[in-house]
Design a protein that fits this description.
The structure holds two protein chains of two kinds. Chain A has one domain. Chain A contains 13 helices and two strands. A two-stranded antiparallel ribbon of chain A has the order 1-2. In chain A, a hairpin with a 4-residue loop joins β1 and β2. In chain A, α1 crosses α8, α2 runs antiparallel to α5 and α9 packs across α10. Chain A is elongated and about 70 Å long. In chain B, a hairpin with a 2-residue loop joins β12 and β13.
């Protein structure tokens, strides 16, 4: 199994398209950082319009912590797409390439292959989130410096002291890995159904977009199902920037995401073990 | 000794389409077993079932006497295969592809063995090139190198000459014969071209619409009296009239002005030529070929032949 995983990772990181995701993250992040460097103060003035009338805020407000938070909010939909680019290609891409039948004529168990593909997707997700942390957080800190962080919400704002922020980012990135692993698992399941990778990637995005809209619609009908949608829980990372941190809600979201991941992977194994390989 | 591959009453349907219908056959060690049938006859489906890629609806498959379903992973160690196109990772080199699939073979294969198989298939010196830069023939040969690197007892090659140019076909044929004669491999090879099977196989099975039509040693199945002989002469009604009352009349068919087709043993060609010349015909050409189409049409239209098993 370790050998299989090593081979899988070797294939992923030898393929040029793998690095597209890292490039996209860098590009989006840099664009936002440049925009904030050139016009961040007026953006912040507009965002703090109501607050400035009631509070006297001093210090480096436009700091690396705030810029990183703005970047993460902007990438809410993009990161799942980047994860799906690799996870959705895992089985369907092999089928499309024709290598799946060659792989399965080797003494490799299908369950092992699915698990290895999942672990490889997971490791790719971890690296992508780490890269996001490097370019969104550490680069922003270099460009904008440190300071107390203002977390602007629709009905309130939270002021976090600069010494109290870094651990929150670490926890938020860990939570993001969990959420994106659920996306990777779903994408892998869709990948098992298909013989080309476009279908699973588009389907993953379609599901994420539709469920995210449902998660955000304030209608009684949807309120019933919202607690069961994984998209409702994917934004649990934001909880780490509240004061106090809603640990119970975050724990519940984490458990639901883990359950979704296990269900997706189990379904992939069951289906793939019965699938006729005709590609 | 148990057959290296034994298939009993194998059936498989895709929705309403019956791809393989109650198929049984056995391949013995050392044979080159030809699997002949038109496109869609059920060849690839059967081979895929023998490799565990497709699950049969019924029937059983045994490798070296052991039930395939009971120990798939163990038995796959003794098989090497190319199914349809030998697709590989185009962004990796031939060597990297070979190493990856060798590492998945279930046994430790030394680098020297990998170099040896590259040498056997004639890819030495090109192994560092990306596979995306390989010709179809090179990919086929790399596919065979991958299939045989772990020294399997049985090689399953599905249409290995597909997409190759004439030189590539000749090289592939020579390689298959060499694998059998020089390396002692048992080979199951499929094709829709009778000529290809005839060149390399010792035994063959003909499959049509998923059913076994005929099976036996190639030379016995290919009755030389069924060889298609096409004669082109300058159109001449008197020659045609003489033919209808001659000893050749029972063989001849007219297919066009001056075009005559005989189903006869090629050994009779000189006598036919002499007869035509003596009769005053201006012979333009005489050619013999054992085309699959004619042979296949013969065998599927002849109910007696259809059930013959030698």
């Amino acid at each position: 199994m370790i050998q299989l995983l090593r081979i899988e990772l070797y294939k992923i990181f030898k393929r040029p398209r793998t690095y597209i995701s890292f490039g996209i993250v860098t590009a989006i992040t840099t664009v936002i950082q440049v925009a904030m460097l050139s016009d961040g103060k007026s953006f912040l003035g507009f965002a703090l319009q109501g607050i400035n009338e009631q509070f006297d805020i001093h210090g480096n407000i436009l700091n690396g912590y705030l810029v990183a938070y703005i970047i993460l909010q902007s990438l809410l939909i993009h990161i799942p797409l980047l994860v799906a680019l690799v996870a959705g290609d895992m089985l369907a891409g092999e089928a499309n390439l024709g290598t799946l039948r060659l792989l399965l004529t080797r003494p490799v168990s299908r369950s092992q292959l699915v698990l290895v593909k999942f672990f490889a997707s997971f490791l790719y997700t971890v690296l992508l989130i780490i890269w996001l942390a490097v370019v969104a957080l550490f680069l922003s800190l270099l460009l904008f410096g440190k300071g107390d962080m203002i977390n602007l919400k629709s009905d309130a704002f939270v002021m976090l002291l600069q010494g109290d922020v870094m651990w929150r980012y670490a926890a938020a990135f860990l939570f993001a890995i969990l959420a994106m692993t659920t996306i990777a698992a779903m994408s892998l399941l869709l990948s098992a159904f298909a013989d080309n990778s476009i279908g699973p990637i588009i389907s993953t995005m379609g599901i994420v977009v539709v469920l995210t809209i449902l998660s955000n619609l304030e209608l009684p009908l949807f309120n019933l199902i919202k607690p069961y949608l994984f998209t409702t829980h994917m934004i649990g990372w934001k909880g780490f920037f509240d004061d106090p941190v809603p640990y119970a809600a975050i724990a519940r979201s984490s458990i639901i995401l883990v359950v979704y991941t296990v269900v997706f992977i189990s379904a992939t194994i069951v289906y793939f073990n019965k699938k006729d390989i005709r590609s | 000794m148990a057959p290296i591959l034994e298939v009993e009453h194998l059936s498989k349907s895709f929705k309403t389409f019956k791809a393989v219908d109650d198929l049984s056959f056995a391949i013995r060690r050392g044979e080159v077993y030809g699997f002949l049938g038109q496109n869609g006859a059920g060849k690839s489906t059967t081979m895929r079932m023998a490799l565990g890629l497709i699950f049969p609806d019924s029937g059983r498959i045994c490798i070296n006497g052991s039930e395939f379903n009971n120990s798939r992973r163990h038995l796959l160690r003794s098989i090497g295969a190319i199914i349809e196109r030998p697709d590989m990772y185009g962004y990796l080199s031939g060597w990297e592809n070979l190493k990856i699939f060798a590492a998945l073979s279930g046994s430790s294969i030394p680098a020297a063995r990998l170099h040896e198989v590259l040498d056997i298939v004639g890819l030495k010196g090109r192994e560092k090139d990306r596979v995306s830069a390989y010709s179809q023939g090179m990919k086929q040969r790399l596919g065979i190198a991958i299939a045989m690197a772990h020294q399997p007892d049985l090689l399953i090659l599905d249409e290995p000459t597909n997409g190759l140019d004439p030189q590539g076909i000749a090289e592939m044929r020579a390689l298959i014969i060499s694998l059998s004669k020089d390396h002692g491999k048992t080979i199951m090879i499929s094709s829709h071209l009778l000529y290809e099977i005839e060149q390399v196989a010792t035994n063959m099975l003909i499959i049509h619409k998923g059913k076994k039509i005929s099976e036996g040693p190639v030379q016995q199945l290919l009755n030389p009296d069924d060889t298609l002989t096409e004669v082109a002469i300058v159109p001449d009604d008197s020659i045609t009239a003489q033919l209808t009352v001659s000893a050749w009349a029972k063989y001849v068919e007219r297919t066009g002005p001056g075009l005559l087709v005989f189903r006869m043993n090629p050994a009779h060609t000189p006598a036919l030529n002499k007869w035509l010349v003596d009769a005053g015909a201006q012979v333009q050409s005489i050619s013999s070929k054992h085309s699959f189409e004619t042979y296949f049409l013969n065998i599927t239209s002849d109910t007696t032949a259809a059930h013959r098993a030698i």
